[in-house]
Amino acid sequence: MEFELTPASTLASWILLGIAGALLAATLLFAWFAWSASHLSVEVTRDALQLCVPLYGRTIPLSHLDLAHALVTDIDPASRVQPTLRTNGIGLPGYRVGWFKLANGTKALLAVTSERQVLYVPTTEGYALLLSLKRPERALAQLRAPTSA
């Protein structure tokens, strides 16, 4: 003899739909992170540096950059600009974006990929930028040009 169970409440159905929606949203968010990881950029304009990275992008006036102390350097375990602690960001092998502490104690906004050579730019705002660029020397020269454009 077979007996039929009473149906689940509508609350249970709504909870399951909510969980499914949250999973779909998380999947889309991570897909966007994966896509944006290969579409990072830095743009230097006449009066600002625009960092185009997911969640941490911003426009920084050139007047806030300490270009006298900016340099192109390698990040390796012995480097003073080696990221040591992630405070708010994404830290995956070959992809670090967000706020980190550096070995020299400086707070830094990173957009670092698998490149070992990075552009280190301190700011007058109490943090530094650490950027993986294809041609960091050229970017530094552009930043230091009397009228960047």
Write up this protein.
With 149 residues, this protein is an alpha+beta fold. The chain has 2 domains: 10-39; 40-144, no CATH class. Helices cover 24% and strands 35% of the residues. The protein contains 2 helices and 9 strands; from the N terminus they run H-E-E-E-E-E-E-E-E-E-H. Strands 4-8-9-7-6-5 form a 6-stranded mixed beta sheet, covered by helices on one side. The protein has a 3-stranded antiparallel beta sheet with strand order 1-2-3, with helices on one face. The N and C termini lie far apart (83 Å). The mean pLDDT is 91.
Summarize the structure.
The chain has two helices and nine strands, in the order αβββββββββα.
Task: Describe the secondary structure blueprint for this structure.
Elements (H helix, E strand, L loop, with lengths): L9 H27 L4 E4 L3 E5 L5 E4 L9 E4 L8 E10 L2 E8 L4 E7 L3 E6 L5 E4 L4 H9 L5
Parallel strand pairs: 7-9
Antiparallel strand pairs: 1-2, 2-3, 4-8, 5-6, 6-7, 8-9
